[in-house]
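User: Hi! I'm working on a homework problem where we have to compare a predicted structure to a textbook description. Could you give me the structure for the chain below?
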Amino acid sequence: MRFLHTMVRVHNLDDALDFYCNKLGLRELRRVESESGRFTLVYLYASADEAQAMSVDAPLVELTYNWDSETYSGGRNFGHLAFEVDNIYAVCEKLMAKGVTINRPPRDGHMAFIRSPDNISIELLQKSEALTLAEPWLSMENSGTW
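Assistant: Happy to help. Predicted structure tokens:
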């Protein structure tokens, strides 16, 4: 398992970039804009991690800017921790055997969500291409929120 990123939702992308980049010293690695999803994702890295960032190995901060206005309460502005795993199905099976609820099963063979005992969302992402769709994951319903 490899740590990928921490996601934070922001109200104003320009203000957030000013803080994280101009004041804190992080640097923008890449940006993803989704017209259909109405959001922008900006991935930042610390200057000491530059060599790793260029080879996709650095831990990142993901700023998520939702284009439609939303009030974030109850810690909703903090999104999730993300980890890359070698086999998402095997990891989810192992977690379930230990009593962990899979809140968002890996129906797509690529992504799942669980929660910590303190309700922190944790995203699990398949390291390589998505795995072949398989049961029981394909038919498994969401449980709670993530």
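For your comparison, note the following. The radius of gyration is 16 Å. The chain has a mean pLDDT of 89. Good luck with the assignment!
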